[in-house]
Design a protein that fits this description.
Chain lengths: 90, 262, 366
């Protein structure tokens, strides 16, 4: 699973950055189109939910999702790598 | 199935400010409701007026957004007329303790089978930051520009004294414990009162020197004292610092309840 | 099986409510309406209903609105001081279109006034008491029989028009004891349920939306803020607010002919009495004593919305005399609807008008 911050909802309060027990977030650098500096994932491999949600069938930790006042944090299936067709010019 | 299913997705993002603790408390309440495995048709959320009370408008069940301070009276009517419905009340510190004080203590006395989640940000947020009955002594607000001169209520003490069956207090930092506390409140028959201390960065935080949202949450975390530690300090005769919030399950008892299906 | 009883007005009111299917009463004791609460406390649990004495009148009104949303027919009973307290929540019921019945056994006012003497001083307050523009229905009984019948009718009107309906009685009618004939059953017209899939606050052609009862899976959000057809708050939209408030008012005003209830006696008279509530008894007495004097009488049972077209039935009228136990609250309303001269005959203090007084007034204007 992969942690995704929904940019249509995030208001840049950075509470997720502060409360995560595994310190997977870091504060963002650039403002997005709405002017909000969305937190970035610093070390997503440390998130136990991303790694273990399928194994246990339920949310492990999930403190960031509960804390986020704007319901902006979701876990989504990691898309498998898709082969792309590329044209090569000689 | 997660607590996200209880939100009206077409109405999000909500009107709460960036970093508002209310969003966190609603998440925890809905996570607890989700664990109770209640059906959405059988759950009703009632609220008064204020930032806290805008929450039911974002929840997918039947909800009643009533007049200031009277949410508990409306909820009493809903619960008694149809005891099969599960009624949860969202309210704020001003809504509950100022204008709604009378309804609060009578609901505790009657022990009506409701669960009240009070989002205590120690200020009147929606109307722009006026002092509330829970604003701490000396704090600034728009109607206490020289520092609040009145001692605040301890809402949990009020609830315990008036007879509530389950009383607990947590903060918006302690999300997991808050979820468990709301769950215990929903499971306990009779009046359950859960006070959640939350940060209000726009009204309270800005005036009281909390520059960042995280500063205020850090303050809530560092000034929370578990009830067990508080009791130990009292036993040992040590002085308890006055600006600490006592968090934890403060009361659980089995007084006869009203409105419970036999 | 109809049966005959000798009841107090308040008892008849409570029994009329029970016969109409009232299953929730949330109230607070206040003279002169306490007997209704006491009667309901005894009778409601036997019928599977709920009686609760709330901590004040504000909570009473709130609890009946909450109960009404679960589908129960709910009512409360109060008098002047409690009525003033209930005003905010009455406005809430009007805005959210919650059906409920509020009985006001009027007493001498203002303030604590005369708890044990009748008056009709709350008539304007009933129509305009809460802030903002809205419209309500008010019924005025003048006998114990009417206390029973009009209370039962109030529930049907409330459910049909989704509005708080007021039974504006007074302490005289509330506390008097008279013979009453009880019908074997009372017609109950249930609420129109909301069709699943329709927006909860979208009105049909009669300007009344279907009722989305709690617990049936409608997922309705009810709010006192200005709301759109989905029920969501949209408080900063001027057009939406205007259309919502206009609909709330037109819903009642456009239907006033259907719900009107009044009697016209001697429509060709020149001097016409207009009365409602307790003064009706005095007018009935003088008409009984002088049957050939052609005394015109418009006796109104639905005071709000005011049936102003009834005034036009008196084609030869030169003078309307309005005996009221207040300083002319409805006389003021009549004045603005007619060119015929209107004289208010106020009587404060709790005593009824005497027949002699009304006859003297009639002589003075002949």
């Amino acid at each position: 699973m992969k942690l995704v911050i929904d940019e249509t909802r995030c208001k840049g309060c950075n509470l997720c950055t502060k409360v995560c027990p595994y310190k997977i977030f870091k504060e963002g650098k650039k403002a997005n189109r709405k002017g909000i500096i969305v937190p970035e994932l610093d070390r997503p491999e440390r998130c136990p939910n991303c790694r273990l949600m399928h194994l246990y069938g339920r949310t492990i930790c999930g403190v960031c999702q509960l804390t986020c006042p704007d319901q902006a944090i979701h876990w989504v299936e990691e898309q498998p790598y898709e082969p792309k067709k590329v044209a090569i010019e000689y | 199935m997660s607590f996200e299913d209880w939100y009206r997705q077409d109405r999000l993002p909500h009107i709460y400010c960036a970093g508002c603790g209310n969003g966190t408390v609603v998440n925890c309440t809905l996570a607890a409701v989700e664990q109770m495995a209640w059906k959405k048709e059988d759950t009703v959320f009632v609220s008064g007026i204020g930032c806290s009370s805008r929450a039911p408008g974002y929840i997918v069940t039947d909800s009643l957004h009533t007049t200031h301070g009277r949410a508990i009276a409306f909820a009493t009517g809903v619960k008694l007329a149809n005891p099969d419905l599960h009624v949860v009340v969202f309210t704020g510190d001003g809504d509950l303790a100022a204008i709604g004080g009378n309804h609060f203590i009578h609901a505790c006395r009657r022990n009506i089978d409701l669960t009240v989640v009070c989002m205590n940000n120690q200020i009147y947020g929606m109307t722009g930051g006026q002092g509330s009955p829970t604003t701490p002594l000396g704090c600034l607000s728009s109607t206490t520009p020289y520092g609040c001169a009145e001692t605040p209520f301890d809402l949990c003490d009020l609830a315990i004294a008036a007879g509530a069956n389950y009383v607990s207090r947590w903060t918006s930092y302690h999300v997991k414990e808050l979820e468990k506390a709301v769950l215990a409140g929903l499971q306990t028959p009779g009046f359950s009162f859960i006070e959640a201390l939350v940060q209000c960065p726009t009204a309270f935080g800005r005036r009281n020197k909390f520059k960042q949202v995280a500063d205020h949450v850090e303050y809530l975390r560092s000034h929370s004292m578990l009830k067990a530690k508080h009791d130990r300090l009292l036993e040992q005769g040590e002085p308890v610092p006055t600006d600490m919030f006592i968090v934890g399950e403060l009361m659980r008892r089995n007084r006869p309840a009203l409105g419970v299906k036999p | 099986m109809t049966r005959t009883e000798f009841w107090q007005g308040n008892t008849a009111c409570a029994e009329g409510a029970l016969a109409a299917g009232c299953r929730f009463f949330g109230g607070y004791p206040i003279t002169p309406s306490t007997e209704i609460a006491e009667h309901m406390a005894v009778k409601l649990p036997k019928k599977g209903g709920v009686f609760i004495q709330m901590e004040d009148e504000i909570a009473s009104m709130a609890s009946i609105i909450g109960a009404s949303w679960t589908g129960a027919r709910a009512m409360t009973a109060t008098s002047g001081p409690g009525f003033s307290l209930m005003m905010e929540n009455i406005g809430y019921a009007a805005m959210t279109e919650t059906p409920c019945v509020v009985v006001n056994i009027q007493r001498g006012g203002p303030s604590t006034g005369q708890p044990t003497m009748g008056a009709q001083g709350d008539m304007m307050q009933c129509r305009f008491g809460s802030h903002g523009d809205y419209s309500v229905i008010a019924l005025c009984p003048a006998s114990v029989q009417e206390m029973y019948e009009l209370t039962a009718k109030a529930f049907n009107l409330a459910d049909k028009y989704r509005v708080p309906v007021f039974l504006m009685a007074d302490e005289v009618v509330g506390h008097m004891r008279e013979k009453i004939i009880i019908p074997d059953s009372v017609e109950q017209v249930p609420r129109k349920a909301l069709v699943k899939g329709t927006l909860p606050f979208k009105a049909d052609s009669d300007l009344i939306p279907g009722f989305p009862q709690f617990g049936k899976g409608y997922g309705v959000h009810v709010t006192g803020l200005t709301h759109d057809e989905r029920g969501y708050p949209c408080a900063t939209n001027p057009k939406l607010h205007e259309s919502l408030v206009m609909r709330l008012v037109d819903k009642i005003e456009s239907a006033r002919r259907e719900m009107a209830d009044f009697d016209i006696l001697n429509p060709d008279a020149e001097i016409v009495f207009i009365a409602y509530g307790a003064p009706v008894r005095t007018v009935q007495q003088i008409m009984h004593d002088h049957p050939h004097d052609n005394i015109g009488f418009l006796r109104i049972r639905t005071v709000w919305p005011f049936p102003e077209y009834a005034l036009g039935e008196f084609k030869n009228a030169r003078h309307f005399l309005v005996p009221e136990m207040n300083l002319g609250q409805i006389a003021r309303e009549i004045e603005r609807h007619t060119k015929v001269s209107v004289t208010s005959l106020p009587k404060l203090g709790g005593e009824l008008h005497t027949p002699a007084e009304l006859l003297a007034a009639r002589e003075a204007y002949r």
